[in-house]
Amino acid sequence: MAPTVLFTLLLCSVLTAGHVWAKVVDDFSDDCCAEFFYNGTAPRGIEDQTLRRICQQLEVKGNLASFYATLYSPAHRIPIYSAYKFNPFCTHRQDGGPRSWFMEPQLYQRNLSAAMAYASSEDEEVWRNVQAANADYSLTGFARAQLSPSSVQCGLVARRATFTLTNAAPVHPTFLRLHWSQWEEGVSRVLQHLRHGTAYLVTGTVPSATDAIPKRTAFDDGPENDFNRVSVPTHLWTAVCYRDRDDDQRSFSFAYIGENRPDGDIRLMSVAELNGALSDLYHSASQVQVFSGDGCLNIDRPSTLSVFKQLYASIRMPVTDTLSMSDDVVNVLHAATMMTFDYHGNDYSKQLSEPLERPKLAQVTVLRSFSSLEAWFRSSELMKFMFGTACVQSRPFTGPIRTSPDADWLKAQKGSTLTADDDNLAKQKALTTDDSLATLKGLTLSADADAEGLVCVLTPDQTPGCLSSCRYQEEARGYYCSSGATPIPCSPLYSLVTTGGAQCRSGHTCGTHGYSYYWCYTASSWDYCSPPLPLGVTRGGQYCRSNHNCGWYGYPHTWCYTDYDDNWGYCCRSKDRFSALNGKTCQAQHPCGHYGYGYLWCRTTDGSWEYCCTQ
Prior knowledge:
By secondary structure, the chain is of the alpha+beta class. It folds into 3 domains: 20-216 and 227-319, Extracellular Endonuclease, subunit A (Extracellular Endonuclease, Chain A, 3-Layer(aba) Sandwich), CATH 3.40.570.10; 361-534, no CATH class; 537-615, no CATH class. It is 16% helix and 23% strand. The protein has an 8-stranded antiparallel sheet, sandwiched between helices. Strand 9 (252-259) and strand 10 form a beta hairpin. The two termini are 13 Å apart. The relative contact order is 0.07.
């Protein structure tokens, strides 16, 4: 069950030399806090009635300076997010700060001092009712991760302001050191060279509804309320929006999110994708918007692609460290690289000064097992964006939908392959060749022979009429590409396999090809294709079968099979609160719900209403 996220006030003060402060206001539009948010507007859709808004301040040379803003949950005793800006002119970004962490008295009682304080044992006993204390982290095995990291603050005074427990959450130390910190450093390396604009960052947590520290063991005594006090986040996330003041084409945005586990991986994505993910994780009543307006949603600019590549070059390990190669492959590569120079007879110590033509790598097969449809989908979308390369499914796949401990996500879709209904194939098509798509050749990503994995072929993602890759857009809930001026709907390059398990004919992949449904030519006729991911769900909440995604299939309504026993249901294109039946989209202010009726429905963007699938 996802956590309920909470909201209320904010903390401010009178000057006292050397103190860190928290300013009390009704919202983040106050002068001391608005500067940390793009357009002066705090994230939307992450609201409830018990969260505290904190403007984190510090007295510097007699003046009160603001360093970042925090939305804090007294119920979970961790921050929901901290918003801050990146200063590219700062040349000293080393970590450092006080050995102890601050607490905030006014979180407990408004008439107490507004200055942050190192808690005495008596103070801590009282203040810890609504916030974390140092003792909560002791001997738990969890690290205190700063949402607004000290490393991005300029100077010792500014870094000191980040060492408050209202800016920290418990994180697995392995995840923090090996994954999250690398991304923080990578982002800093990208932003430190950008001096003609402003970079706005928001880093947040998704509190767990069940996991908290400190945990009681068989050797612990003491009252029950000494344990399970501080929520351990299930996820950490960051959104970045850089706006260039001279040339908006140099502006960009991106986001990333990771699961708080020792082996948790981090996924790079657009801000729009993060908005959708957080809407689901927070179970928000309305769509989450980390940045206001549309200025931080456009990821098709060349500047964004450049930043994505910089991040991967900076953070990801070299290819030789990420690929496991057999001895035979290593020997072949070594042999090929030795052939770069010509030699004088048998005297191998004497090389010609001029190298020969470099060896060419003509074909490569990589053994890679995608353990689920979701893993393949996310990897494929990023591959298209980063390299303009599509990972096109080349064999039937009946494995699990998602890779997750959640039993619902792990529901396997196994069984025999169905053939298409003859009635659905009554309409015959002339067998003509579509010359706009070349025969797929190149790098093959295939499953290990001993693993149940999805096999795909890598090929350039060249869609007719598109100047960019055809990718899934989370906000629009469909596939779009750039035509130059505006995004246009497109049919992605994604599969060579029909719903009946047949191979598409060479040069003709699954696609709409001018129709409202997905299909392709086969060796002797044609067949329907399962529409591209994300995987749809039925009104009953069941995922569509992996090879029969939610689609029309010749009928006037969207439907799909849910298993291999011919059970089916009317369906929505994705499992979220804004997808409705028949390809319609719920209005942002009227997501899927009961609204006094015994069924789920919503008002749709076409001005009508429709049944929907996920509340």
